[in-house]
Design a protein that fits this description.
Layout (H helix, E strand, L loop, with lengths): L2 H17 L7 H12 L4 E4 L6 H10 L1 E2 L3 E5 L6 H5 E6 L4 E6 L7 E5 L6 H13 L1 E3 L6 E3 L5 E6 L12 H4 L4 E4 L5 H8 L2 H5 L9 E2 H16 L3 H12 L6 H7 L3 H5 L2 E3 L3 H18 L6 H11 L5 E2 L1 H5 L4 H11 L6
Parallel strand pairs: 1-9, 1-10, 2-11, 3-6, 6-9
Antiparallel strand pairs: 4-5, 7-8, 12-13
Helix pairs in contact: 2-13, 9-13, 10-13, 13-14
């Protein structure tokens, strides 16, 4: 990676975040969503309605020239064929023609209210999100998706009617879980004094990157991840392993508290969680203009990569113990690996 390439990407990312400023506040959420894309991952956006999840994704897409965005409003009647594609009989040729779905040529796919989909539709997303391909009975072999492909899915944690919990296999395909919260008083005042920007947030957004720039940035992030020090890798491993109950390392880290925590945590993260932590940490290095992965990058990444891939027991809810409390305890108890 050349210094000029690194500097170019840093400047482009600064311009991108400046454009995202049309969405008032949400600075951390914006950073993690961009980091997820640069880490070649998918993001799960969790918040009550009205906090600009969908608008944020639209603004992000508009900053990237020649990118293709698709939106799927998930409901109970959306079937796999609606997002993957379907055959249509062509009277002229007397043959079935494959009509591609919104996943086929998209760079960014916004899936609104993903938890309203059915199991079959959720299953159709698995291959696309993990392998970058989709398979259809009417096509020979898999259809390759664009090299720059990201699913940004939204969900409302307050709703319980008409929703289906995401299968754990699908949850694990999301690199991060981003919980979007209310803005500050100043942020909301800025919104009220700029109603034109609220009703048409993308109107004045400029294109500051291209699809090729995103791919270049992803390559730089991959290089940063591959050049991580042994100490950084061991710290990432220890953080994720400390979330796996009923293991020797879990018991060692949590000591007398291990038995209580084992009653709250059902299943910990797979190795995919460790990869996610590494990739987000590497993306944060580029975004923040640093030279290499440090503990601060790993800690910030871990806060967003662990919640999506830990299964909490019902007892945790009864005792008001959340996955965020688990993250806090792990960050407190796992020692940083020094050289």
């Amino acid at each position: 990676m050349s210094n000029s390439m690194y500097l170019k990407q840093k400047q482009q990312l600064e311009a991108l975040f400046e454009q995202l400023g049309v969405i008032k506040g949400q600075h951390e959420s914006k950073k993690i969503i961009v980091a997820t894309i640069l880490g070649r991952g998918n993001a799960y956006l969790l918040s009550p309605p009205g906090l600009a999840k969908t608008t944020l994704v639209k603004v992000l897409q508009k900053t990237i020239a020649n990118s293709v965005a698709r939106r799927v409003q998930m409901t109970f009647d959306v079937r796999p064929r609606d997002i993957v594609g379907y055959p249509l009989f062509d009277q002229a040729t007397q043959k079935n023609v494959f009509i591609p779905g919104p996943l086929v040529d998209a760079n960014i796919v916004l899936i609104d209210e993903i938890s309203r989909g059915l199991g079959l539709t959720h299953a159709a997303l698995l291959e696309a999100m993990q392998e970058g391909t989709i398979t259809h009975v009417e096509k020979v072999g898999a259809i390759k998706l664009p090299d720059f492909f990201a699913v940004l899915a939204t969900a409302n944690p307050l709703e319980s009617e008409g929703v289906n919990p995401l299968p754990e296999a699908l949850r694990d395909r999301f690199m991060t879980q981003v919980e979007i919260t209310y803005g500050s008083r100043d942020d909301e005042l800025a919104m009220l004094t700029d109603l034109a920007g609220v009703f048409d947030a993308t109107k004045n957004v400029k294109e500051v990157m291209t699809v090729e720039d995103i791919l270049e940035a992803q390559s730089i992030v991959f290089d940063i991840a591959q050049s991580a020090s042994l100490e950084a890798l061991l710290y990432i491993l220890d953080l994720n392993r400390a979330a796996r109950p009923n293991t020797d390392f879990f018991n060692e880290v949590h000591g007398n508290d291990a038995e209580r925590l084992s009653g709250f945590v059902g299943v910990g993260p797979s190795p995919r969680g460790e990869i996610a932590t590494l990739m987000i940490a590497a993306a944060l290095v580029l975004i923040e203009g640093d030279d290499y992965i440090e503990p601060k990058h790993i800690k910030e990444a871990f806060r967003y990569t662990l919640p999506m891939r830990v299964i909490m027991r019902p007892e945790a809810s009864i005792d008001s113990f959340t996955v965020h409390e688990l993250v806090r305890l792990i960050l407190e108890r796992v020692a940083v690996i020094d050289k």
